[in-house]
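Notebook, p. 212. Picked up where the previous page left off. The plan for this session was modest: take the two constructs that came back from the sequencing core last week, fold each one, and keep the raw output in the notebook itself so nobody has to go hunting through shared drives later. Recording the first one now, exactly as returned: residue sequence, then the structure token string.
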Amino acid sequence: MCDDTSWSNCHVDIWFVISRYLSPEDTLNFALICKKTFFVTNSETYWNGLFDRFIRSKYKWLDKPTTSNGSCIRDETIRELFKMYPKFMNRKRDPDSYDKAVGKICISIKHSLNEKFMDQSYVFKVKSKSKAISKLAQLNRDEGCQLLVIRSKQFVPFPYESDNLTVKYVSKNLSRGFRAYKLKIQFCDHFGNSAGETLVFDPIISVQLYDWWEPEYKAYITSGSY
């Protein structure tokens, strides 16, 4: 048994046993205990266990997540948890989460027109700058990616060269007349210098930022609207 001074010297098998009693929301804190717990939370055994305990135990008709298309058990389990695990499903969305796109690299921009409502949709795919990640995370092509989705009544032309620009600034303010909001996005190059590209959406209907594990993110990716 481990005492307070030797807990980090516990055999990894002990940490695997302890991990069987964790809830999904405990994953981060558990991973930060030591290198061995980090190893545990980045194993397929750990994620298979979470899937069986918190998803498959309630939805027995569900098959184990597939690992096709470069995906892995970790990614699919996280996605399923955000669709079916109550504590994740019921999290309140931050209406101002769009500012979390600041500092991320813009990979691509796509535009579509909703002819029924005559509004424009702009989807910016942004990604965190490269950093050390686990081997399982490296298998996820969407790791660190987010979609910034903007709906507006106004058509806004794309930047001439949008790829690999960094989002420098995002702000939402009242439009002239105080009846709606406008959104401004400013880009810079990878050195932090202004790239001379600023987009202003005025007025906007809505703006949302989706992380790669959210159902809405996958819906946009699957439909090709990203």
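Okay, moving on. Second construct, recorded in the same format:
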Amino acid sequence: MNEPNSPYPEPERAVGSEAPAAAQTRHPILESGCAAGPCTRIVDELVIHHEPTGFRRLCEQVVTPETRYIVFDLDRTVHVGRNLGELLGWEVNALASYGEDYLQAVDEERRPSRFIFEPRRPAATARYLTRGARLWAYPGLLYLFGVKLGTRSPQLRPWLYRHFGRDPVEVMQDVPRTAMMHHLSEVPIELLRTLAERIWQRFSADQVVQPEHVAWLRRRCPGVRIILSSASPLPVVEVAARELGVDDWFCTEVEERDGYLSSPFVLDRRFQLWRWPRRLSPPSLVRVNAGVSKMAWLHERYPDFRAADVETVGVTDTSYGEDGAWTNHFKQVIDINSPNPFAPIVFRDSPLRAIHSAQVMSWAEHQGEGGERRRTAPGRHPPRGSEPRKRWLASELASKLDRIVHQVEQLAADYRTRAATLNSDGTASRERVADWLRSIERDVVLYNSTTGAAWHRARRRLQRDLGGYRAASRHAVRLERPLASLTCQLDELLEVSRQSLG
């Protein structure tokens, strides 16, 4: 975890602060401007582990003693099919409806589910249902139809890129994340940590990565630094980091004040909040650790991460492709229990040598291995191949994927041509968005520091500037629609390249 005497100091964290260019680019294949030669290459090795295996057994085949950094994603990685941040959001709804005393009393009896229904308390249950429907209808439906269904639909997917831009999954995932951060701001942070601890224990049977695995990795790799990097909020990641025993962690953060997390500065009537937030976190104190930002913050804190002689391993589920950029930063990546594994076509300057795709057993599955009552974890995908393990070398992959590689190179050329025509307009558009964020920063300071009529004026000014910020953001998306369309085509080709291998 973040140690007081760590040789790796906390970075200055600010929205919009410039991170290394490579870390801010989701698709360097398109965006790095390959002036000469191909933009892509085939990864040296792809190993597909078809049969479910244990996490330690997998690491014995992948992680070498020379490894210096191992980075874990949290949600749906450490646990099969479980998003701990989402579970905390539902737990806060239960807290407001049933009360802390009741939740504490029934904790040991509860099943591993995001919901809690108590027929013996009809009024509280009705409050729980109506409150949940009000607060989660818009964020939940957007996530369901946009992320879970839309990204899998050939008809809807191009529309999502046109409407939300070049990284639609990140934009859509940010909506429920922001809504949840608003709800968390109503609960003391110590109580949030208690709720997160209960969630960790309740879903322990679905856990893939155990504390003993982390301890074993530390013994296997002297000097290794084991890091947890997640888009989930601070209380969840703090608990996970402590329980696993990792060395450091990154999470989504907002301002913490007087024992509470502040609300995000993004206010939207579709969130259906019960009241105006007590306090807002200004843009400069909001850090969303998601998408390419995960790599930006990692590079900032650990400058030697990309050194040629530093061995690095990344472990994630990348279920919706949100961690696809990891292939541009690690020497080895492992996608575990993923419906959308890493593609073997990478940027030509990527340090990546090997990809491992594996179905990794949870604690409950591992306990039942070989028995008649073996439990299947939620989110488990059936094996796709008949062989227990299939190893592809670069020469074999190049032969099989030659046509797709050619199409990707053509897309990259088209992208460079389109981007050149939009360059000045795109820069001006991004500057307008940044100007609105600076205005919002000032508005939030007034919102937090005034009362009475002055507070109402600050609130109205903030609402006006948020409207300007949204309009400028929409204009930027419209301007870059040709690039978003090409990005959509690239993502589809990369997925096809991986699916064709089993």
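Notes on construct two before I forget. DSSP finds 17 helices and 14 strands in the chain.
Flagging for discussion at group meeting.
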